[in-house]
Amino acid sequence: MGQLDGKVAVITGGSAGIGAATARRFALEGATVFVTGRRQAELDTTVKAINTENGSGQAIAVRSDVSSLEDLDRLYARVRDHSGRVDVLFANAGVTQIARLEDVSEEHFDRVFGVNVRGLLFTVQKALPLLSDGASVILTASIAASKASAASSVYGATKAAVRSFARTWAMELAGRRIRVNAISPGPVETPMFSGVVTDPAQATDFKDALLAGMPLGRVGDADEVAAAALFLATDASSFTTGAELFVDGGLAQV
Ligand code: NAD
Question: What is the pTM (predicted TM-score) of this model?
Answer without folding.
Answer: 0.98
